[in-house]
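Supplementary material to the annual report.
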Amino acid sequence: MTDVQVPLLTKKDYESDQAVRWCPGCGDYAILAQTQKIMPTFGRKKEEFVFVSGIGCSSRFPYYMNTYGFHTIHGRAPAVATGVKIANPDLSVWVVTGDGDGLSIGGNHFMHVLRRNMDLNILMFNNRIYGLTKGQYSPTSEQGKKTKASPFGSIDYPLNPPSLALGAQATFVARTIDRWQKHLAEMMLRSYKHDGGSFIEIYQNCNIFNDHAFEEYTGVDKFDNVIELKNNEPMIFAKGTKGIKLEGSKATVVDMEKHSLDEILVHDESDLNLAHIIANWTTHPVLPEPIGVIYSIDKPSYNQEMVNQVEMAKKIKGTSCVQDLLNAGDTWVVS
Amino acid sequence: MGKTFKTIDEAVIRFAGDSGDGMQLTGGRFTETTAIVGNDLSTLPDFPAEIRAPAGSLAGVSAFQIKFSSKDIHTPGDKPDVLVAMNPAALKVHRNELIPGGTMIINTDAFTKKNLKFAGFESNPLEDGSLDDYFTIIPIEMNKMVTAACEGIEMSPKLIGRTKNFFALGVLFYMYDRPLDATEAWLKKKFKGKDAIIEANTRALNAGYNFGDTTELFMTRFKVEKANLPTGTYRNMNGNLATSLGLLAASEKSGLDLFYGGYPITPASDILHTLATWKHFGVQTFQAEDEIAGISSVVGAAFTGKLAVTATSGPGIALKGEALGLGVITELPMVIINVQRGGPSTGLPTKTEQSDLNQALYGRNGEAPLPVIAAATPGDCFFAAYEACKIALKYMTPVILLTDGYLANGSEPWKIPNVDELEDIDVNFAQEKNSEEEYLPYLRDEKTLSRPWAIPGTPGLEHRLGGIEKAENTGHVSYDPDNHHKMVELRQEKVNRIQQDIAPTEIFGDDHGDMLVLSWGGTYGSCRSAVETLREEGNKVSHAHIRWISPLPKDLGEIIIGFKNVLVPEINLGQFLRLIRSEYLVDAQGLNLVRGRPISASTIVETVKKKLD
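Predicted assembly:
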């Protein structure tokens, strides 16, 4: 796998010959470009990557990657990818999904694939809207959102994907933003290196049906509104001028001119309680939006355990052939 | 004692009792011994959907019927000659099905006031004379008998009471002159380390046998001679085990490891349970979070080069429909097993039916043809599963295998096949480009129209599959109208081409006559029995059984023309019948009984006679 000599590839090698058909200005372009750029740096053979997607704008992604790919059906990408990964655990399997595909119709599979710690890399493009069906509210749309399907404002409450992932026992939960190109690439590398299921929520702008949804985090004052989580480092943001203090489970933003670094909350990726607290800052009116690796621990993956069980069974029972099984049990001869 | 032996051709026995009385187990033991002594046999387990309905209730009655014979038989029999009733509810449910003059062996200890009331008897039928005129009643105080037999064993009275099914088994073994040793050996193996349980059940078994010997209630014993079966080594086989073995044989012969992704559902779960124990054969079993994830994982595993399989029942197939369409358009090999049960909705989960044929043929959006094969007998599930895998891999297509609850749980003596003699299954993964410029995932084989199979990990053949219409050859996304029409036709034509692999249809009887009984799936046995009877009586009736329903065999039209009438017995309202009528423009008639049970041979005989009158 990674330690094998791999021919040096470039971004171009990962581009398929299919014309990309997202709307001009869509955030998906940036994510695709970054993916094609970073994949060659992983030092892995191109044929070992598989991209699996469901249905939605983001799910067209595999068609544009010159790797093995599978554009499946609505919501089921995690389940199809599960079959791929169990069938051949040596593959690097990536799931591309959206907030509707992954959390609405595919919510059940999303939950269980994370619970099992299936070694998949799940990229969820969250644009908080249904794009491909032309603009209905999604399970991450804010309450009160006016769409064609909710002319008086949506009465649905949104869910918070990292909280859901943590509740489902995910072993790697991260968030990034389409316009934060370097950070996006960094998260994909972390996900790739994580041995087990990993979930990255990517805030992605739909410039047709939900433009400016993430303006606060990508515009001129983005550094005031976003905090970049770094393991074992104090949580400071706004170019070092602000920090986060934790009292009990309550976080507050403090002015760094009045507080010292040792008062500031230090991020610990392996702390599940802290991860839940951080995940809950999502769309908080005062607290900054957390991006980066919220949670990461090591735990044996389902696919590895499956390999172990099969090997163990072969060791204990030895290899035999079907004919032995057919002949087993109470038999008698008619002569 | 002056007991006499009477040799008979065949007998039908039904064990009936409370769900907790161990009737399935008792029937299973009687079956094994009957198989070992060399009779032909056929069984029908019939149990409630409730795991443990209230003790003594009508809903909680569980039954097991076996027919055994010195002749070649095909059904578990219609009406039993002997009914073992372990409590009043069992008597109430089954008393009307016994043949007139039949024997009832009754555990009188269970006929308490409370149980009688629970079963809805106003008076005790053992005392009010309501049964005496019709049946031979053999009342036995089974609880008292086993208590006495187990004296000295350190076990609670309650546990000792539970051995009464083995007492009943002993009585039946005496009646039909069967040996006890196989059951005794089985007890020792099953309860290894639990000496008290082994001892108690062994004593109960022997007590039952000896009771038969000493009491004057049984003046006649019956002998059923060995059946004249083809030579070979035999074992008893049920449908779900046969299906599992067929899949594993296909895995071995194709050289592909087996991947099973599925969700538990009655009556298919035993396939998952069985495959899960075969990890040392490289079998991977994935218990998914739901039916949809089950088939989706199968699609993924098929893409990645496994022999990918799922099994479910009707409600599960309903949920899998969309993913099956994905399997059809991506042209990946996989086998989907439907162990049919009573429907619609939850229907009759533990009862048999043939009502998912239309679902198998048409239950997907769009023009989504796929091959459908149906097993005929419990043992045939092995060969049908094998053939389904073979066709799936050869033609790169999902294949639906239809079995049913009766086949799945029923059993028969099965001549063990030689794996070396099974047809080979060749699989060739694509290794290099199939055109000068690029790999064309939809470039078809001229003869089978199947496409190549390049699996992830193969250098240079990276390609994308998906549910959007594919362009011919390249497999790229295509919305072109002419391309779509062509692909729709190609997918159908590919299924039609499977006709070249279908064995000629066998006709039992003459190739012309007054009536052709035409069957598919689990009604094979009843139809064959019925036609045997009808022919013995001189009727010009023949039987043809259809294995592949999609595509239909190419000789069927010719066969049908040879007969004045066609009768299609099915456990549905005429799903195969309508297919036959529309395909061959023939005035075929149906025999449709949807009772959650096999259609009896006698019903078919009567129906044919009425139609020929």
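Residues 11-219+300-307 of chain A form a domain with the Rossmann fold fold (CATH 3.40.50.970).
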